[in-house]
Design goal:
The structure holds two protein chains of two kinds. Chain A has ten helices and no strands. Chain A is mainly α. The chains are: A mainly alpha, B alpha/beta.
Chain lengths: 253, 266
């Protein structure tokens, strides 16, 4: 029953926004606007077009960084998963990247690459890539042995085993890594705009905060979360169409 | 009784032609000796069971015959040709079915043909024929998770039949299905051995199953693994599937095998 799923999603949104509205009315802090005030600010920004200008700026490092992280991350992940040598060579780098306190390292990046697009793309990549690489390599390494044996016994070539067995078998975990990595990439894009140079959505957040226009600040934060959620949903749809049998419906649904 | 019984007689002596011969196979995993100097002949067009307690190396031997594992020493010949890896003359049926969950029944059954480069229309026609033959007509577009365990193994069997290999290697194919389905499978298997001109090598740990379906039973004992005896039941095969289980020879053989295996079961 898709209606039931939709109903529960809407209910969840109503509870969340309701709680926000109440917390804003109490108020929890004078710097915390209500849900309706924030939506009003979002509407105003949409009508005067400033939100679109901001996204034109923010989406540049985000799209480039996410695309690089996805393509390169999956490729390196496959490589690392298939070969022990590359596992030993590359895995430590990505584990360190994942654990590194990025905000503290940003000055170093700015020193090396300046305050332009390169640094911002790098921040997105550092946020997004490790989880994509580590998930992909883990999934590849955990391909059931009997699938690979089946491939070999039915005369599949090495390439066919990778393309027809290992990648589809790993795809649910690869996609889980992509989802996590891309959400981290969104965080990275905003982080870079707050920490390097205030442009785009990061500029709205910084500027609104400095003039105490909190509804606009929260509207900007809300819009980036909304965009991330919509994008992740799209990714889920892509996965569902690509690997149909991997999706298991619950009988009780 | 007319059953013939020999211990490690070379091929020819019993009056049959071997499709597969395993000669002096040893397999070590580091320090552990899985198989030691094992020799066995598999007569053409018949079903040979490898029967033994767990850890006796029966699956290891089957995978060596399949070319999935390399023996430490010794070699396997299929139709006189030495095995160096998996080949078109052998097809494998897996204990856990090894079906690709993202592919439909049709694509799973056609997998072997696809890997052999058979054109789409032809391989789908052949896959459909074998899906019908194993009794799954109408399920061509179902996914494995929508099927019961017994039906999944029928897909695995259809996939192995579709590539039309001379030798069918079956690794405990019925151990993961329920008892009633297993009995039906065993009856179907007898039919299959009779109709298809193929050599079957069948690994099982069930004594009853081995005696029921086999033309030849090789009893493997562990530590170190060796063929302890070869039993060729002959008398009850022609009496029809319904009468085998109460045939005195069938019951005697089951008892004898248990008597020789019981000391190896903890």
């Amino acid at each position: 029953m898709p209606n039931r799923a939709l109903f529960l999603k809407l209910l969840s949104a109503v509870i969340l926004f309701g709680a926000w509205e109440i917390a804003g009315r109490v108020p929890v802090s004078f710097a915390f606007p209500t849900f309706l005030e924030s939506m009003g600010a979002l509407l105003a920004m949409t009508l005067d077009g400033s939100i679109f200008e901001a996204y034109a700026e923010t989406l540049k490092p985000l799209a480039i960084g996410v695309a690089i992280s996805a393509v390169l991350g999956i490729a390196i992940g496959l490589w690392v998963g298939l070969s022990n040598t590359f596992d030993w060579l590359f895995s430590p780098i990505f584990i360190v990247m994942q654990a590194a306190p990025l905000a503290a390292l940003i000055p170093l990046l700015v020193l090396a690459y300046g305050i332009g697009l390169t640094s911002k793309v790098l921040v997105v990549c550092i946020m997004a890539m490790p989880v994509i690489v580590l998930n992909t390599s883990g999934a590849v390494r955990n391909t059931p042995e009997s699938f690979k044996e089946m491939g070999r016994s039915f005369l599949a070539s090495e390439t066919a085993i990778i393309l027809r067995i290992i990648i589809p078998a790993a795809s649910p975990v690869i996609f889980a890594g992509l989802r996590l990595g891309i959400s981290a990439g969104f965080i990275g894009a905003i982080l870079s705009e707050l920490k390097i140079t205030p442009t785009g959505v990061g500029d709205i957040i910084t500027y609104s905060r400095s003039i105490a226009d909190y509804p606009s600040m929260y509207a900007a934060i809300f819009s980036i979360i909304l965009l991330a959620v919509l994008f992740l949903n799209l990714l889920e749809k892509i996965e569902a169409t690509l690997f149909k049998g991997n999706q298991r419906d619950y009988v009780s649904n | 009784m007319s059953q013939t019984r020999q211990t490690l007689t070379p091929a020819g002596a019993a009056g049959f032609e071997s499709a597969v011969s395993a000669r002096h196979i040893s397999k070590n995993y580091g320090e552990v000796e899985a198989l030691r100097d094992m020799s066995l002949e598999f007569p053409r067009g018949q079903l040979t069971s490898l029967l033994g307690p767990s850890g006796c190396g029966k699956t290891t031997l089957l995978k060596i015959i399949a070319g999935l594992l390399k023996p430490t020493s010794g070699d396997v010949e299929v139709n006189g040709k030495k095995v160096t890896g998996p080949g078109p003359d052998r097809a494998f049926v897996f204990q856990d079915f090894a079906l690709l969950p993202w592919a439909t029944v049709l694509r799973n059954v056609a997998f072997g043909l696809e890997m052999r480069g058979v054109a789409t229309s032809e391989r789908e026609a052949r896959a459909e024929k074998y899906i019908k033959e194993v009794g799954l007509a109408g399920f061509e577009n179902a996914y494995p998770h929508e099927l019961s365990g017994g039906m999944r193994q029928r897909v695995g069997l259809a996939r192995a039949l579709a590539v039309d290999a001379e030798v069918l290697l079956m690794d405990e194919p019925f151990s993961a299905v329920d008892e009633q389905t297993r009995r039906k499978f065993q009856e179907d298997l007898l039919q299959l051995v009779q109709n298809e001109n193929k050599t079957f090598i069948f690994v099982t740990h069930s004594i009853e199953e081995a005696v029921y379906v086999s033309d030849q039973i090789a009893i493997l004992l562990p530590r170190p693994s060796r063929v302890s005896e070869i039993i060729r039941p002959s008398n009850f095969r022609s009496k029809g599937v319904d009468n085998i289980r109460r045939d005195p020879e069938y019951l005697d053989i089951v008892d004898e095998i248990w008597a020789s295996l019981r000391t190896y079961v903890e």
